[in-house]
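Treating backbone geometry as a discrete language has practical consequences that deserve illustration. The sequence in question and its structure tokens are set out directly beneath this paragraph.
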Amino acid sequence: MLRVLTLLAIMAAPAYSQALPEADAEFAEAPMEQISLGQLLFYDPILSGSKTVACASCHDPRFGTSDGLSLGLGDGAFGRGPARRVDPANLPPRRVARNAPALFNLGAAEFTSLFHDGRLELDPSRPSGMRTPMGAEMEAGFDSALAAQAMFPVLSGDEMAGHYGENDISRAVSQGLITGPGGAWERIAARVAAVPEYRARFDALLGAGAPVHFTDIANAIAAFTIHEWRADNSPFDRYLRDGTPLGEPAMRGLELFYGKAGCSTCHSGQFQTDQQFHAIAMPQIGPGKAAEFEDHHRDTGRMRVTGNPADAYRFRTPSLRNVTLSAPYGHAGAYATLEAVVRHHLDPVASLRAYDISQAILPDLPGAVDDWVLARPDEIAAIAAANELAPVALSDAEVADILAFLASLEDPVSAGGRLGIPQSVPSGLPVP
């Protein structure tokens, strides 16, 4: 009977310009011993150079696994979410260059590239099975792309490694010592293995006395992330599986999303992403992505990875699962509300030209230059020229319906996390 009702519901549904996605995705599985170990490591500041920043500092479930900021503050700051503040005695030299992406469903098989610019990608032609800017020596030993992404923040001075020369990890990174003896990874792994509870947990996982490598730490964190923030039981998922209806505004929003509004042209698939890169004239704020010798604050996105000018200002289509919880939005977090970023999509170039940085959520950072690009007409013109998204006319009521549909993508179990935030971690350091 349920199957008949499902078929009737599907038959009664309107014809969409883009097909609705399948109901289920493939996820990697891991033993609970590895998952629970990863939970502790995710929340433990022991992985950071100065032992003050954890993965959870920028990926907090209380802020949709992001940090509630347009651009975060890593080493040299304290506090949680929008209340995060700089430490005057250890002032960060700059903000983190890009908005902290949400972690929902990153363990699904369809996520073959990560980060706003896709600089970490699965590549079966390489011995490691993936390609990163780090090189082959640093790519071996990771179970997945999600595990490999853990190498980036721990080696970033702005995020977890610490400022130049302030601790043994940042010194190793600044000297280019990463994987070998005395390198940053070995030092981080030694710290962890020296904690009795971690040593015992790795013994149970790897075998008594087996050496603990950084890749083992990263693999455990990835296993936890996959388990904790698997988001595939939202009202929309239930609609796809058995025809359970959404509320009327959400149903109207669904029809717009997969029809007239054209959202699903890019936000396709089960998790509302085509896994591709698009230029949609998103405002650029903050320090941008520049090499140390470059004196600018721009961020050309995917072009930094491919070197192809056609990829300038293209950024990865984000998944929209639990998107209502993970503000701000955009690669630089330019928009503080979901409605604002939805409206940006209606006319990207006009929205870019009218952008007001006062809506961004940026904790005070002395000396920060956040509007460098916005103050330069030539930079704005370059971003606008790359735009590939045509304007769409929607009424206020239709925008409200799309927002109602996006709310139907919330999965409350994943939003809070299955294991939750531990009260303490084995290192004894404060949990963020």
About this structure: The domain at 2-22+233-412 is CATH 1.10.760.10 (Cytochrome Bc1 Complex; Chain D, domain 2). The CA atoms of residues 94 and 334 lie 17 Å apart. Confidence is low (pLDDT under 50) at residues 1-11.
